[in-house]
Amino acid sequence: MADRAAALSAMRPDVADAAFGPALRTRLDAVVDIDHGLVVTDFAEPRARRALAGAEVLLTGWGCPPLTAAVLDAAPNLRAVIHAAGSVKQHLGPDFWARGILASSAADANAYPVAQFTMSVILLAGKRTFLMARRYAEGEYKHSASSRHFGNTGRTVGVVGASRIGRLVLPMLAREGFRVLLADPTLSAADAAALMPAPWSIELVELDDLLRRSDVVTLHAPSLPETHHLLDDRRLGLMRDGSVLVNTARGALIDTEALVRHCATGRIDAFLDVTDPDEPLPPGHPLFLLPNVVVTPHLAGAMGTEVALLGEYAVAEVERYAAGLPLLGAVREDDLARIA
User: Fold this and answer.
1) Is the residue at 315 inside a domain?
2) 135 and 270 belong to one structural domain
């Protein structure tokens, strides 16, 4: 493009500061005309509407308001929305997709912190770290070192969903020596085998079989109507005694009331970074009170210094757009039925 396209940021100001440091802002200035002092959280604000009218590229992030029909009508020159975060479902709806505007997400950049977090949780869960920390505080110093429920050696981990995060977790598990099972109805055995680099292997199984055979079950499926309460009371009952359920995906994949019942018996443990139907959970929720359940506040994805990874990805996409190249993180309307 001979002239730099006009760009506008729409996200929380603190997100913009974390995602786009001085070096990234310099890179943006080289390819688009953007006012870094204007970060929009309300498209109805007069200054925002004036900038929106001329914007060709919209840089979005956490806190971006929905792009309604009225907002899109006020942005006649808009050609691309570059999202410096993961899911676009919160701000891009049917009105957006009907207009043929390009969309990109930094979900690939957000995936690695989630996979890294998940792997850390699995290793700590194998040592019963969270339960033992609570017991230590109550006066019990150390559990029997010979208990078969402790340790990571010889364990089987079941991965539910070969999402972008699930695909990162698979080789991490193999490198740590775990036997790896995968349940994903969209894959063939050949597809699954191709996900694991040699010399490691993966076994594609049905979900019920995975639940029966796994010491740890980690969820990486999208939240869709067909995956709502994928782990219901019956399926939670299939998990073997002493197993651990890890959810860093979407809370709606698990029937929370059923999970409370199963964990309350002490038969299975759970580590939840996401919950359903409430997020955040209200104080005093039963999940907070169970000694074998840990609930964290949706922190597996990019946070703090990691947010710069999202900004880096988004800026690279803006550069690709300016050069007339395909967007690596392109999202299309027909992708929505299978992504988070």
Assistant:
1) yes
2) yes
Which of 149, 212, 261, 279 is labelled catalytic? Answer: 279
Looking at the structure, do residues 115 and 20 belong to the same domain, yes or no?
no
Band (144; pLDDT cuts 50, 70, 90): low
* 229, 298, 306, 319: the active-site residue: 298
The reply to whether 314 falls in a domain is yes
Task: Exactly one of 179, 250, 262, 320 is catalytic; name it.
Answer: 250
Residue 127 lies in a domain: yes
What would the pLDDT profile of 254-282 be if each residue is shown by its tens digit? 999 999 999 999 999 999 999 998 889 99
Residue 308 has pLDDT above 90, yes or no: yes
d(CA 335, CA 140): 50
Residue 279 annotated as catalytic: yes
Alpha helix positions (H), the chain: 13-19, 22-31, 46-54, 69-73, 94-97, 107-126, 129-137, 164-175, 189-194, 207-213, 233-238, 256-264, 286-289, 307-322
Question: What is the model's pLDDT at position 1?
Answer: 43
Q: Which two tokens stand for residue 70?
A: 């009225």
Q: Closest Cα partner for 105 from 305, 324, 302?
A: 302
Give 143's pLDDT tier (boundaries 50, 70, 90).
low
Using alpha carbons, list the distances in angstroms from residue 329 to 107, 169, 227, 314, 325.
7, 20, 24, 9, 12
**Mean per-residue pLDDT, 99-112:** 96
Q: How many domains does the chain have?
A: 2
Judgement on whether residues 12 and 92 belong to the same structural domain of the protein: yes
CATH number at residue 39: 3.40.50.720
Tens digit of pLDDT for each residue in 191-203? 999 999 999 999 9
Residue-range definition of the domain harbouring residue 62: 5-105+304-335
Known active-site residue 250:
yes
**Predicted pLDDT of residue 145:** 65
* Domain contains 164: yes
Same domain, 97 and 192: no
